TrEMBL record:
Transport keyword on record: no
Enzyme Commission number: 2.4.-.-
Molecular function as annotated in GO: glycosyltransferase activity
UniProt protein name: Glycosyltransferase
Amino acid sequence: MTLDIMMPFYGRLDHFREAVDSVLAQSDPDWRLVIVDDVYPDPAPGEWAASLGDPRVHYLRNVVNLGVGGNFRECVRLIENDRAVLMGCDDRMHAGYVARVAELVREHPDAAIVQPGVEVIDAEGRVHRPLADRVKARLRPRGPKPELLGGEPLARSLLIGNWAYFPSVVWQADALRRFGFRPGYEVVQDLQLMLDIVFDGGSMLLDDEVVFSYRRHAGSVSAVTGPDGAKFGEEHALFSETAARAHAARWHRAERAARLHPTSRLNAATELPAALRAGDPAGRRALLRHLLR
């Protein structure tokens, strides 16, 4: 199995180099890395990538800036193989990542989504567990792993709290092309895509073996869009849409989870102090609206 590693790029050069180096260090050499530069103003990342001399590494630069969602859609368009991961340009693969996900796919070829084990690192690369990730760990399904999940139980679990780590997930390429990333869900596009696949009958394989480091830091899209409430507007729209879908499917427990979205409300509550400190009345109103409706 050749794994397409699609890396949308716009960020710090040092983190980017760490991410690419972690791909080059894979114990299983059967991968293809495609870096899609969303018109980053510094040419240094592209020059460095071009200097690597590895035929498996491809560097492309968009003609115009497409934004987060647009660049993800461009990455999906460029996929050539049957399985792909949309890796963050500031994350790290452990040396056994490709080997482990290839093994999981061989054992469960019908799984549309493969979520391997993940650890969280900070901006400096140190392992840590902030509140959001402690909550994710508690919400993540328990039991022997690897475990195949699907249907209403998986949808309900993700709606209660999205415990997946999008940049580490391996996807069936056909599912990515079929559902893609819909405009309007730029921040919650991972949850939107997973729910689209699950409602269509797709399954997720969940594993515990840690083979990926997800970097959580203040410059991430979700961190930047939290205090101003933008993220929660998208979440509310997605939860409302999903509640209607679950109702039509008679997935009543999933419908209830979508309407309550408890961890999303709690997350909005944790962002309120920052909105107050910033003197942002629009952000404050957006957060309160998400908490109460």
